[in-house]
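Teaching assistant's notes for section 4

Start the section by putting this record on the projector. Ask students to predict, before seeing the second block, whether Lipopolysaccharide assembly protein B will look compact or extended. Collect guesses on the board.
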Amino acid sequence: MPDLLLLALLLAAIAIGWWLGRREPLRSRGRTRQHATLSRDYFVGLNYLLNEQPDRAIETFVQAIEVNSDTIETHIALGNLFRSRGEADRAVKIHQNLLARPTLSTGQSDQVQLELSRDFLHLGLLDRAERLLQQLMRDTGDDGMRQSAKRLLVDLLEREREWQSALDVALPQLIRQDETVRRAAPHWLCELAQQELRSASPSLARKRLRQALSIDEHCVRANWLLAEIERDAGNYKAEIRLLRRIPEQDRAFTPIILEPLRAAFLKLEDENGLERCLHQLIQATPHISAVIMLAQSLERREGSVSAAEFVGKQLAATPSLRGIDYLINLYLLDAEPAQHERIALLKQHSGKLLEAQPRFRCQRCGFSGAQLHWQCPRCRSWGATKPIIGLEGE
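Reveal the predicted structure now:
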């Protein structure tokens, strides 16, 4: 059983024990007997818990305590435990049972509705969760509760890919107050911009992307899409300017701009400009993909020896498997017949090692893969997946 779950159950058990201990002395014989039964149930549940039988412990605790104003929080906590264990259907039953009680205060009712919304969201009952959250936002008089409901509703709308609806809920207050929402909102606008591009509306897409940058000036994706718009329009100088802004926003994303950058310079027949640009990028951060691209240009102009010398110096400062693989390629070009077979075998091994390595990794959860995901498939963080240094490239 996970340590976190055990701790939560222990805290719930302590809360139940505290509640039993603070009950007023019972005078009648029947009520004294009831109190003894409750105390016995509590210790039975605690025994199950200590013996790592959480299912039986929870059932015992739920049955041991009646629902009243003193035990609402305990019932809510038990319902949340069920949900955290993947048993959201049981959590729904507990929270719905609480809502049916006429003795709930307004604040308690709001809290139970919020937890019930989380249960529905966990179960994938998005329509029911959305209706409950909309009602809570409309009826609650607690600003903190309204903000919590908004955050949960935004998360729900994002899951449904209702980007404009999520923006409508989040703007402007939630974006100012919540860093996670502020990081996500520019990507919702980028999603809308891509929809506009598919509808052949580049002017509307530009508007969306400028709005994204006004929320987060470091949104790499917005400049990436603006550069794509300029490329499609044949404005290669503008595309280059936009691509070169990306390393200023986040140097880790330098590798993704290299291929479109080279294509744009070649469209302009300006290979010297490309080399100057690559030198500047390498001076700022020596990504191996930029090093290899510059080495390829040197190889065409000066030969493989100059290219190998350049790459060797870079690898001495910043070792890289991809750089070694490229260097082996260069050695193969000038290898003597007797050495060629050995170097080719070394190249085969380095190639297999590279094929087995991911190219991108989420900085939050560690998810890795061969493609760039603007939203991590595992933890759903926006803009957290970046090229892995030393492995980036083709």
